[in-house]
Amino acid sequence: MPIRPLLRTLSNHSLITLTAVSLALSLSACGSNPHQPGKPKQAPVKTQPEAISASKLLEMANQAPSPERESLVLQAAQVYITNQKVNRARDLLVDMDTDILADQAYIKHTDLLSAIALHEGSNFLAHGILTKPRLEQQWQNMEPFMEVSLREKRAQVFALLGEAQESVNERIQLAGLIDNKTQQQKNQDALWQNLMSIPFAELQQLSQNEHGQAARGWYSLAAINKNNQIDLQQQREQLQNWLREWRGHPAHDNLPSDLRLLQSLIDQQPKQIALLLPMQGKLAEAGEAVRDGFFAAYYQALSNGRYTPEVRQYDSSVDALAAYQQAVDEGADLVIGPIDKEKVTELSLMPSLQVPMLSLNYPDAPPAQPLKGFYQFGLAVEDEARQVARQAFLEGHRQAMIIIPTQEWSERSARAFTDEWEKLGGIVVNRTQFQTGANYSGLVKDAMLIEQSQIRTRELQQLLGVQLQSSPRSRGDVDMIFLIADPAQARQIKPTFAFHYAGNIPVYATSQVYSGQPNPKADRDLNGVRFNTMPWLFDTTSSEKQAVAQHTKSAAVYGRLHALGADAFRLYARLPQLEQVPNMRIYGATGALHMLVDGRIEREQIWVRFRNGEAQPLPMVINENELAY
Fold first, then answer.
1. What residues pair up with 480 in beta bridges, in sequence order?
2. Which of 89, 191, 404, 493 has the smallest CB count inside 10 Å?
3. 298 and 425 share a domain?
4. Is 383 helix (H, G, I), strand (E, B) or coil?
């Protein structure tokens, strides 16, 4: 797609304040703070007094010969950006013929235009600008401050689009260019985040095959961290071996913060854990499924010679407060559970906790005052909805339609999506609800405004007095659909989009759209739908999953609760680490887990798409221009 129309289309959907843009485009900046999708940089803007106005520079450019003319236009664009008039800067930049620019002018043009594209969320466009062959030929002739600016943008966009290895390479290059200690640390933190997004097997391979010494050391260190998230002792031993082998590596004397905490975690890990789960009543089977998942991970650790705490189980069915107190009185260092939302709410209202608690659900409302030692982890539908919003926005969508069933949990999910979507800068243009067994064709027809299109055609025929050969059109103000539906509902709703001329609009869904069991014949109607779900469903090598299948008789519907229990075991010794290192992730059965400031553990799930009736895991980001259904 040509640069000009795409940029102008996106100009109406700016993600950030103009203040943040002017900071990002300051050519003297050398920061390395990783940019999160849809999140503005919050640092204060430092601008110099304007010596010449942009209009004056453009007036001078009109009278000047090339290449002075182009230089003046670039200066005017910079002034517009500094004065937060980004649309005017964009118009100047996209109108320039870069083929006639001298090398230094081309570099400056690339820096300015890529920054606008990146901060407006046009990540694929920014990627294209920053990877042109001509730019690759300019590194040796570039001023250091400009190389820092461009490599920082490249590192950001590579990370945003899931090209973690390329982002790591850029940040290793940046490490040799930045002399400010604060910026060096930010760059290293971002580098480590990129490394942690690479699968363990790939890290192992890169640690052996990468040519650069610094890169090999980083990949080796990341593999140690990624592969030993349950076994603290083994991780410490492998880290000590790494430190002996890589004495000259940049990370030797400045380990990532999560690794620096290893010894204290080992010293402080709980010796006795209480499982607070329902043993009777309507949630008894759910409690049993969580318990089975927990002990599958527990016995796997035990069989591998790892340290395991003593575990005692208590019934939370009747009086969760009394069960908690009994567990404390009997020596528990950590309480895990309960799973009942009402019981979790009761415990969250305690004035203080004698020992920390990892609840396996979330209270109805967060405590009025932060409750020290109260950690919350569960399978919240809101987490999935927020992740859909972030992913769809990252992939370039801005105008969403929501289609959900009339159920309380789906209402919560839709609210979470809407809040996150609008916070990012997106627009919800329509929200439609349906009852199970509804007329789904009529539902989609109304949502896509097909009737209005047919009315317009009839009115035009009456006006002209002739029969028109035309097809109805669906509304043009929707570029993504957020669907919450179970498999049976979705199999009926999805095909109606194509029937009503909206088959090319991407459909995003939550995990409820997939039963967890392959069914290619029935799921062909879901082709193209992408959804987020927990890695557990697609992990064929998990020893915990195999143990659950072998030793329990739980129905498949409880698979997600097995994963929840397994991850509760993964988390128990790492809670202080997650609390102290905000960007740290535990890569578990339910997703990549990180802790928010209120002690709430949020999940980032994998992405999957139906293709030929099969649910297939996807790369991190999809380029719509290359997507084939």
1. 400
2. 404
3. no
4. helix
d(CA 183, CA 178): 7
Residue 298 CB coordination number (10 Å): 23
Look at the block and give the residue holding tokens 């006795």.
Answer: 272
pLDDT digits (tens, 9 = 90+) for 203-254: 999 999 988 999 999 999 999 998 877 788 889 999 999 999 999 999 999 9
Determine contact, residues 217/195, Cβ cutoff 8 Å. no
Residue 277: its H or E element: strand 272-277
Whether 274 and 314 have beta carbons less than 8 Å apart is answered as yes
Contact 221, 211 (CB under 8 A): no
* ∠ Cα 88 89 90 (to 5°): 90
CA distance 607 to 506: 14
Domain, as residue range, for 453? 382-533+608-623
Write down the residue that tokens 């200690």 correspond to.
Answer: 181
Mean pLDDT of 91-120: 92
Say how far apart CA 532 and CA 529 lie, in whole Å. 10
Query: pLDDT band at 127, cuts 50/70/90?
Result: very high
Tally of domains in the chain:
4
How many whole angstroms separate alpha carbon 186 and alpha carbon 34? 8
| Calculated CA dihedral for residues 10, 11, 13, 17, nearest 10 degrees | 140
* Residue 278 included in any domain: yes
User: Residue 557 falls within a domain, yes or no?
Assistant: yes
Q: Which residue has the higher pLDDT, 447 or 435?
A: 435
> Do 433 and 406 share a domain, yes or no?
yes
Residue 177 lies in a domain: no
* Closest C-alpha to 283, from 316, 307, 253: 316
User: For the domain that residue 587 is a member of, what is the CATH number?
Assistant: 3.40.50.2300
Euclidean distance between CA atoms 72 and 259, whole angstroms: 50
Average pLDDT, the chain: 85
Over 50: is that where the pLDDT of 585 sits? Answer: yes
Same domain, 514 and 587: no
Residue 568 lies in a domain: yes
Q: Is the pLDDT of residue 454 over 70?
A: no
pLDDT-derived band at 503, boundaries 50, 70, 90: low
Task: Say whether pLDDT at 461 is over 80.
Answer: no
Q: Return the SS3 of 529.
A: coil
Task: Examine the domain organization and report whether 503 and 577 are in the same domain.
Answer: no
Cα–Cα dist 212/220, whole Å: 12
* Cα–Cα dist 361/339, whole Å: 5
**Do 614 and 506 sit in the same domain of this protein?**
yes
Rg (CA), the chain: 27
